[in-house]
UniProtKB/TrEMBL annotation:
SUPFAM superfamilies per UniProt: Acyl-CoA dehydrogenase C-terminal domain-like, Acyl-CoA dehydrogenase NM domain-like
Domain Acyl-CoA oxidase/dehydrogenase middle span(s) in chain numbering: 171-263
The protein, known as: Acyl-CoA oxidase
Gene3D superfamilies reported in the protein's UniProt record: Acyl-CoA dehydrogenase/oxidase, N-terminal domain, Butyryl-CoA Dehydrogenase, subunit A, domain 2, Butyryl-CoA Dehydrogenase, subunit A, domain 3
Lineage: Eukaryota, Viridiplantae, Streptophyta, Embryophyta, Tracheophyta
Native organism: Cinchona calisaya
Length: 439
């Protein structure tokens, strides 16, 4: 219902609005002087069981290099970009200079890191900003890795060097509007024509796709009915990528809806190593290890923030850190982090020794994200009202974790992958669908 308002009332409202509501918000350090915001990033306090001792010199150096850059160069500006849901292009050269893009890929200007070094680098980026780490994950552990694993020699030479420097950016399009968890049933088609292929269909949620120079697109071969992979250039006629608005997490990541209308891809840009969905899974197995390290980094940052905040902020004449209930939450968070790190580290070692199975990777991703959800919500509580402000990191991390819980296989789907491996029985299709397919 609308109340009748006179002209005088409207004028009064306008005057009040211009003199009061239009004032800019106070700077957080003035409005809340008792605790330091995340733009001055807290020192790392979460390495309680001295995880560093398990790392090689190269891995430790990578960790320190990435941590320093993220704390000093990236932390001061991220809340602003998150609020505006804009991508921080100014950060790209800084991330490029770290020489971590391409991760484990050897040669072609890529760093050829151990999977553990790549994992700790992922965590250090996510500790300060989860969106930055998702940007890197899509570019490096999905787009670049697909070319590294499934590309031809000439594709590797052509694309990897500039992707490794972040001079060009990649994205990775598997998910479709009608096929999320059930990705292997995707419906985008690839039809063979003279000199190449014609792609037709739709993709959804594709990170970096609004500005990526190359798009790795998965489509169903109309002759073999199998999944094939293609490198599509951003200016290809018929290709359209539109930003998905109104996200409540990873707001900095530019996720796009992609429409492919008769997009021609020359033969030279077909990824010869993608001939079925199993080939896509080779890439997902490695990237799932990296995704598991994102929540580890997120909770490290959240813990560091809470640890500093509780010692700075006083209530009832004592620092918040002095209250037993707060200490219990802090210790619960710290315990979770130690266990998450050890599971993530063991996953890397299983991969390095060639023993990691899809079930191992899936359990790592699902269990770690579950523990991370518990940990960030404890952190959110500990900061009181400031626990819902991006200025103190925790609220941002809390929201950013939600899409990570869902992407690269939801918690449920990854659980079912492990469940199938340990029982030998697939629980993916409900009994009703299995019965129908028997009829
Ligand atoms: C921020 C963000 C970034 C992303 N980036 C990319 C990207 O770069 N590239 C890309 O290709 N994709 C990307 N995705 C897509 C992502 O991988 C999918 O969102 C994810 O696979 C889940 O699919 P869905 O959202 O369609 O959920 P649905 O598949 O519709 O699932 C909905 C719910 O049903 C449950 N469910 C589904 N099937 C089963 C089953 N068999 N048994 C039990 N439960 C089930 C799920 O666990 C979930 O809880 C991104 C998603 C997000 C949110």
């Amino acid at each position: 219902m609308r109340f009748p308002s006179s002209k005088a009332q409207e004028d009064m409202y306008k005057e009040a609005k211009s003199s009061y509501f239009d004032l800019p918000a106070l700077d957080i350090s003035v409005a809340f002087p008792q605790a330091t915001p995340a733009s001055i990033f807290p020192p790392c306090a979460s390495d309680y069981y001295q995880f560093d001792d398990l790392l090689t010199l190269e891995e430790k150096e990578t960790r320190q290099k990435v941590r320093k850059c993220m704390e000093k160069e990236v932390a001061p500006i991220m809340a602003k970009y998150w609020e505006k849901a804009e991508f921080p292009f100014e950060v790209v050269p800084k991330l490029g200079a770290l020489h971590i893009a391409g991760g484990t890929v050897k040669g072609y200007g890529c760093p050829g890191l151990s999977i553990t070094a790549s994992a700790v680098a992922t965590a250090e980026v996510a500790r300060v900003d989860a969106s930055c780490s998702t940007f890197m994950l899509v570019h490096s552990s999905l787009a670049m890795l697909t070319i590294g694993i499934c590309g031809s020699e000439s594709q590797k030479q052509k694309y990897l060097p500039s992707l490794a420097k972040l001079n060009t950016i990649g994205c990775w399009g598997l998910t479709e509007p009608d096929n999320g968890s059930d990705a292997s049933a995707l419906r985008t088609t690839a039809t063979k024509v003279n000199g190449g292929w014609v792609l037709e269909g739709q993709k959804r949620w594709i990170g970096n796709s609004t500005f990526a120079d190359i798009l790795i697109i998965f489509a169903r071969n109309t002759i073999t009915n199998q999944i094939n992979g293609f490198i599509v250039k951003k200016d290809a006629p018929g290709l359209q990528a539109t930003k998905i608005e109104n996200k409540i997490g990873l707001r900095i990541v530019q996720n796009g809806d992609i429409v492919l209308k008769k997009v021609f891809v020359p033969d030279e840009d077909r990824l010869s190593g993608v001939n079925s969905f199993q080939d896509t899974n080779k890439v997902l197995a490695v990237s799932r290890v990296m995704v598991a390290w994102q929540p580890i980094g997120i909770v490290m940052g959240v813990y560091d923030m809470c640890h500093r905040y509780l010692k700075e902020r006083k209530q009832f004449g004592a620092p918040l850190a002095a209250f037993q209930l707060n200490q219990q939450k802090l210790v619960q968070m710290l315990g979770n982090i130690q266990a998450m790190i050890l599971v993530g580290w063991r996953l890397c070692k299983l991969y390095e020794s060639g023993k990691m199975t899809p079930g191992h990777a899936s359990m790592g991703k699902s269990w770690i994200t579950l523990r991370a959800r518990e940990t960030v919500s404890l952190g959110r509580e500990l900061l009181g009202g400031n626990g819902i402000l991006t200025d103190f990191l925790v609220a941002k991390a809390f929201c950013d974790l939600e899409p990570i819980y869902t992407y690269e296989g939801t918690y449920d789907i990854n659980t079912l992958v492990t469940g199938r491996e340990i029982t030998g029985i697939s629980g993916f299709k409900p009994a009703v669908v299995r019965q129908q397919s028997r009829l």
